[in-house]
Automatic annotation (TrEMBL):
Residues covered by the Enoyl reductase (ER) domain: 1-140
Family matches, as Gene3D superfamilies: Medium-chain alcohol dehydrogenases, catalytic domain, NAD(P)-binding Rossmann-like Domain
Annotated source species: Bemisia tabaci
Protein name listed in UniProt: Enoyl reductase (ER) domain-containing protein
Signal peptide feature range: none
Length: 282
């Protein structure tokens, strides 16, 4: 049976719970093999169908004594704690299995999976093969096999297209970030690793699409702060930076602010209007 894209869900946050319940039409699954900690453990338990079985293989939940509410067992589910390293304890069965596999290697009963090897210049073809229609392993060959002599390998450089990434532990400030371009830029930042973003807007959230974007990002575990502090003044700009610093060291500031000329009398200086949408004295 081949697995489709719909068989995979993101386990970095609890969105997988909704994915699974939607895919099973609200029924849930019969068996969960879990290693996710904390709140994600509870989300995994909620994915169980009636009479389901939950197998916990993550040690962190055991060492942290993560609590489970008894109400979760109202669907007649069973919970099993499994220590995988205990499978490697000294016992006769383990030696019997190792000997059985070793004998299989010797008599040819156990053979390695077939391997399809691509050169480092054939990366695209290798990924095209990863469609589930082949049997065995797909391997990229970076360099020729070398002797077992202990020495440093000759450096091999692979051509690649540079890609911008952002640091999850640092914060990013987008002045005027709730506009159309600001929302797209925020999505791009998050897609490249940013997890702490401050969006400033004089009106705050004022459209359904803005609220939808913020809810989607927060559901993925992203810290989003909406600030209505006026950045056109030194005091306001300073306060915005102070708020951003509470999330983490500021790694980038993007000025996307725009002020309509109709908000000001024509007689007033255009240079004043330009200055109103810039951050000065940072």
């Amino acid at each position: 049976m081949l697995l489709a894209d719909s068989n995979f869900a993101n386990s970095r946050n609890s969105t997988f719970e909704q994915h699974i319940m939607t895919a099973t039409k609200g029924r849930g699954v019969d068996l969960v093999l879990n290693s996710l900690p904390g709140e994600l453990l509870l989300a995994s338990v909620r994915c169980l169908a009636k009479n389901g079985r939950f197998c916990e293989i993550g040690k962190l939940n055991f060492s942290n004594n993560t609590p489970l509410g008894l109400s979760l067992f109202s669907n007649n589910i069973s919970f099993h704690g499994i220590l995988l390293d205990s499978l490697f304890d000294d016992n006769r069965e383990r030696y019997d299995v190792v000997k059985l596999v070793s004998d299989g290697f010797k008599n040819g009963a156990v053979r390695p999976l077939p391997v399809t090897i691509f050169d480092d210049t054939e990366v695209e073809q290798a990924f095209r093969l990863a469609t589930g229609e082949h049997i065995g392993k797909v391997v990229l060959k970076i360099r020729d096999e070398e002797s077992r002599a202990s020495r440093l390998a000759t450096p091999k450089y692979v051509s690649a297209i540079p890609r911008t990434y952002f640091k999850a532990e640092k914060s990013y400030l987008l002045v005027g970030g709730l506009g159309g371009f600001g929302l797209e830029l925020t999505n791009w930042l998050i897609g490249r690793g940013a997890t702490k973003v401050v969006l400033t807007s004089r009106r705050g959230l004022y459209s359904g699409y803005q609220s939808l974007c913020v809810r989607k990002w927060k559901s993925r575990g992203i810290s989003i702060l909406i600030s209505t502090i006026d950045c056109s003044t030194v005091a306001g700009a300073t306060k915005n930076i102070e708020e951003t610093l509470r999330l983490g060291l500021v790694d980038g500031i993007f000025n996307l602010a725009a002020v309509s000329i109709h908000d000001y009398p024509i007689a007033r200086s255009i240079s004043l209007l330009i200055c109103m949408i810039k951050l000065n004295h940072l």
